[in-house]
Amino acid sequence: FLEYMNSLLATGEVVGLFAKDERDGMCGEVRNDFVRDNPSLEENLLNMFNYFMDRLRDNLHICLCFSPVNAKFSIRAQKFPAIFAVNINWFMSWPEAALVAVSSAFLSSYKVDCTEEDKQKLYALTGSFQALVRDMTEVYFARMRKYVYVTPKSFLCLVDFYKQLYSIKYEEINSQERSVNVGLKKLQEASEFVEKLKVQLKEQEVVVRAEEKKTSALLDKVMIEKGKADKKAEVVNGQKTDCLAEAAKINNEKAEAQVELDKALPFLHDAESACNSIQKKDIVEIKANRKPLDIIKLTFDGLQILMNKKVVDVKMEEKSINKVNAQFLADSYEDYSSKEVSDMNFLQGILEFAANEKDNINDETCELLDPYLRYNEDAAKNWSPFSHPVLDPQLAGKASGAAAGLCKFVGAMVQYHGAAKIVKPKMDALKIAEARLAKAQAELDAAEEELNAVLKEVAELDAELRKAQAAMKQLQDSAAAMQRQMDAANRLLSGLSGENARWTEDSKNFALRRKRLVGDVSCVCAFVVYCGPFNSEFRDKLYSNFLSETQKKAVPGHTKVEQVGFLVDQGTIGEWALEGLPSDELSIQNAIMVTRSSRYPLMVDPQGQANRWIKSREKHRISQNPQMCITTLTSKNLKDQIEFTMGDGLCLIIENVENEVDPMLDPVMDKAIIKKGKNLYINVSDQNMDYKEKFTLYMTSRLPNPHFSPELSAKLTVIDFTVTLKGLEQQLLGRLISMEQKSLEDTLVALEEDVTNNTKSLQLLDKQLLERLSNSQGNLLEDTELIEVLANTKAKAKEVEGKLKEADERKIEINEKREQFRPIATRGSIMYFNMVDMTNVVNPITAQPSGWMYNCSLIQFQEQFDISIRNSEKCQPTSKRVDKIIHFLTYQVYRYMNRGLFERDKMMFKLMVTLKVMVVGGNLTLDDVMLFLKAGSSLDKNAERLSPFRWMTDKVWLNTLQLSRHGFGPEQVAFFRDIVDFIAKNEGMWRKWFDENEPESCPVPEYEERIVSERSLGSFVRLALVRALREDRTSIACAQFIETKLGPRFVAPVTDAIVDIYAESAARKPVLYLLSAGTDPASVIDELAKKKKKFPTDKVSMGEGQEKVARKKNDAAFMNGGWVILQNCHLGIDYMCEVEERLLKTPDIDEDYRLWITCEISPRFPIGLLQIAIKVTLEPPAGLKAQLYRTYTTMITQETVDKVDHEKWRTLLYVMAVLHSVVQERRKFGPIGWCVPYEFNNSDLDASLLFLEKHLSTTIMVMQPLSWVTIQYMVAEVQYGGRITDDLDRELFVTYAARWLSDEVFKPSFAFNAYQSDYNYKIPEPFTTPGGFQASDIAVYRTAIDTIPAVDSPMIFGLHTNADLTYRLKEASEMLATILETQPKETGAGAGKSVDEIVKEQALDLLSKMPPDFVEEEYRAQITRLKGPPRLDEKGFA
What we know:
Elements: H1 2-11, H2 20-37, H3 45-59, H4 72-79, H5 96-107, H6 116-144, H7 152-277, H8 280-288, H9 294-306, E1 316-321, E2 324-329, H10 333-342, H11 346-357, H12 363-373, H13 393-399, H14 401-495, H15 497-530, H16 536-552, H17 563-567, H18 570-578, H19 585-596, E3 601-604, H20 609-617, H21 619-624, H22 626-629, E4 630-632, H23 638-648, E5 651-655, H24 666-670, E6 673-676, E7 679-684, E8 687-690, E9 696-701, H25 710-715, E10 717-720, H26 725-740, H27 742-775, H28 784-819, H29 822-837, H30 858-871, H31 878-898, H32 903-920, H33 926-934, H34 954-965, H35 979-985, H36 987-995, H37 1008-1013, H38 1018-1029, H39 1034-1046, H40 1058-1064, E11 1071-1074, H41 1082-1091, E12 1098-1101, H42 1107-1120, E13 1123-1127, H43 1133-1145, E14 1154-1159, H44 1167-1170, E15 1174-1177, H45 1184-1195, H46 1198-1201, H47 1207-1225, H48 1242-1258, H49 1268-1279, H50 1287-1300, E16 1327-1328, E17 1334-1335, H51 1338-1346, H52 1361-1382, H53 1395-1409, H54 1416-1425
Parallel strand pairs: 3-9, 3-10, 4-5, 5-9, 11-14, 11-15, 12-13, 13-14
Antiparallel strand pairs: 1-2, 6-7, 7-8, 16-17
Helix pairs in contact: 2-3, 5-6, 5-7, 6-15, 6-16, 7-11, 7-14, 7-15, 7-27, 9-10, 9-12, 9-14, 12-14, 13-14, 14-15, 14-28, 15-16, 18-27, 26-27, 26-29, 26-30, 27-28, 29-31, 29-32, 30-31, 32-39, 32-52, 34-38, 35-36, 38-39, 45-47, 45-51, 47-48, 48-49, 49-50
């Protein structure tokens, strides 16, 4: 786009912009105008198009907007000069007057409860807030090197937020005032009503006593009458008892008779059912049958006998039944039964007989029927001629249905008589008894009637008594109700006495609070809108400035407003803590800004705390669709995720934001909401997307110091979530306790949750108490239900208060136990922040940001913290255990960081840790540290007296003066107050100490005893003195200081073997080698791969087009668990971003997979990969001892020592190790060491040792002498000499080879140092075994290396002692300058200028040296006035 604009502004057209047909169309449209305006020109396409372009240039206006703070601004200015060769309007910051005008425009129509004068002050106040913040951003950048921008949009946000918050708070105060005033009124009414009740209660008591006397007399009369009634009742009750006993006896007899009767009833029922079964047709059939069967005739005979009707005389005749003929009684059918059947009421007569005449059946009748019914299966007893009863219903049924029914009826009636004859006597006796009972009952009724008359009289008296008692009770209840009402009122008034006093006090302040709300809200709003990007220190400064400015402008407001308490309550803060928000003040402020700001938050979150809290806070919405709610700016589905979350009213968390944001998000960040009907939309990338007001956008950045553009800062609320020292300390304490005493931490967590819930309950109860009291209607004391509710509410509130008090006591008890472990958390916090400080390190020579590569995450530190707790020695008591953990933790973190630091930064890290420990421990102050770092550099040489000592340079003199004026420690001990006088009095001793080679180890004149006696400050005081007077010995003095404070192992040489690094690595935890000149870990990795059976490894040297190769090898290794080495990754930074994402998001990676990365320093290297990788440097360590220790740890192993079984091989190994260390150490002396800085490295030593191994195998191992000439040539001229380009350097190396690669090295008297010294650098001798054999274990060499002095004399390198002075001075100055650069800059300090400031200073310096501007007219006039040479005409300029 800019290229087109540049072409358009430079040439007036964009070449190739229009196709030919488009150009022809344009020419056709302007043809008439062309002919009219240019009649002399030829009418062709070229001329017409040029005419069109001329018109376009005359009428086209282009307006471009650039941000000058963007890093691309200068690049674009160089690439597209035509764009910047036009009129440029610089829109500077709005002046305060403009801000005031804008504020008045927006707030003038807004109702604020204040005078017009105060409103004018408010306008001025808001404008001054923006100016204050703008000035503070410059100070913040100067001190902290962090960019913060305030823009006009920030000011508009302040105005909008002010209106919003003022309305809320104003209404809140009004609501409270109404509720409090109504509540107070209700309580006052209740108090007055209680006084009235007291008077009414006394009057009521007199009436009650009179009524009690009257009721008592009536009660006595009732009692007498009741006595008479009781005697009569006693007599009646006796009669009643006898009567009831008789009735019970009769009822028993009746029940027994009923049982017998119940036995007979089934036979009666059978008879009835038999009759009912006979149908009219059956009877008609019998009537029609002129010759019925014998069984039918006999059936009717049985019925005749049963019903006591006439039959023929007894005689025998032959009968045929069931085809059996036999002699039986003659039937009466023809004579009598046929006539009965002919009767119309035949069946009805049978039924009536069963109902009414059944009890008249006698035994004689039954005996007459016995021949018809009797049958016995025993043949001996059966006298019947038939083998069955004569009247067998089944046989009769074959003949006629009526006969069957009649047979059943006759048999059933006979059986009924058999059962009924037992019941009948009993029933007769029962009738007699019932008659007696009736007589007794009549007598009883008469007695009861007499008794009722007596009781009626008593009842009338009793009713009169009850009426009197009811009246008395009513009076008593009324009095009791008054008493209860009064007691409840007293309890209520007593219970609410505290609230009454508080509300009374509040009621006096509401007007004042409302008035002061104008200034209070403005301060709090400014804090929320402006203070997010600042750290805790600057937030406090800004807020203090806001408050003081409010007072200065005389805007009504409190002198002190607690912004946290003003915006949120304790219940909300407790909820945030349960969601995972740290409990420190800064985090709470950040949470307020996230939840209260009108703009979406952009959180600077290098430790990931904000990210974790937001995810916990929004877990419900995230759980609905995690893949859509959490994303990054590089996500391919970002647009879909925006659309989905906005449309469903979810949250969108965009992680890993760097300095810029995708422009697609601009309308979302601006909340450019479009309303169409009831629906809301936001246009994203030319697409209207549904928008719901519940949608929330969160952005987090892992960068510790991002540079967001002013435009982005205006659209979002930038909030610095960087953890604080105290905040991290509290988190680490909780983590520690959960590992050491989990139950204690669990108890505390549960307790804090209870406290949060109880605090919210208490707030709710207080609110409900006031609301119910203020919303009550009528007399408060007449509403007993409300009184009960208020009493219960107050009781619950007291109960909750009691729980909170108990929780506070338990919390104190728990915290006392937790505090025993706080020193560990403090040390952990110190170590982490020193790790963070290292990220600010810049190479003072090359200006490379090496600190960027030191980035470590909080999670990485927590891993080391957990390892320290688990692996440190377990012991008692607690204090001893704490010391063990502290020592282990300090060394563990030191080793973890030391492994990944460049050599120049290792001492600096240890020193910063030591100083920080002393500062936090209260032994030193920050001023003490600044004295050590800056000494007397802040003093002006011209403003101080001249040095009286010739041997002391101006710089040392100023340092001495600064020492004499400084007070050390919190107590400001003026340790060196008299140092100038002491030096003057004893100049010889001080000069001698000053000239010592090792002054840090020599006694300090006049001060030695005092320094030794000062246990806490002594070592630092010595360090400060050495730094001030002998800066060249600062590094060595620092090592002594560190050894004194932290222990000797912190200055001992250490080396991390690759085996240990591999053990710590994992599939998702790559190893990152930070490359320096001449280092390459590939061979070491390959050696390890061979041991782990992973050889060959997949190597990819990054560069253009290598991403595909690396991606392919990585994908394969993910599956098969291979090892991948990505070399020179600073040439493939884009792929490194992809590697980070793949490592974190690939679900399945083989556990054996390992990724090894080598990279030079690159500020573009992805921070996420840095924060998960194990960082390692391969630089040779500083010092001969450290170099040899590393060589005999990483390169020379026991296997190497045993490769050639000869003592000369082991000797030559050590000689080569020393030679290798010496030639590398000489590089630190600069041109004095080597004319050219060669990149000697481990490969040179490897190649030399390989040659020596083969040479010894072909010489002394076959009894041939060594060829020293060959060895010297191969080492000095080939292996190492191949790098050497300078003749003097080659001569030097050849000299080393001739001196140390000869037979002399095998002599016992040989030493590498050719000068007298306290320590002789000799070759370790092998030890003798018990069997008399000489053996050489690698431990012998390592033990000998441990005895080498930590500080090398330059003479061992063949240099003069003065050579050390230059190197040490340079080393110390660079270290101090680097440490100073990592610290916050002092206000007004000259150090640490920005690049722009340096360029501006140099440009002004050049301009000052330039001659005046050349103005031709002025110079012509001057030349005209000059006189020409003698004897020539003065013509001047023609």
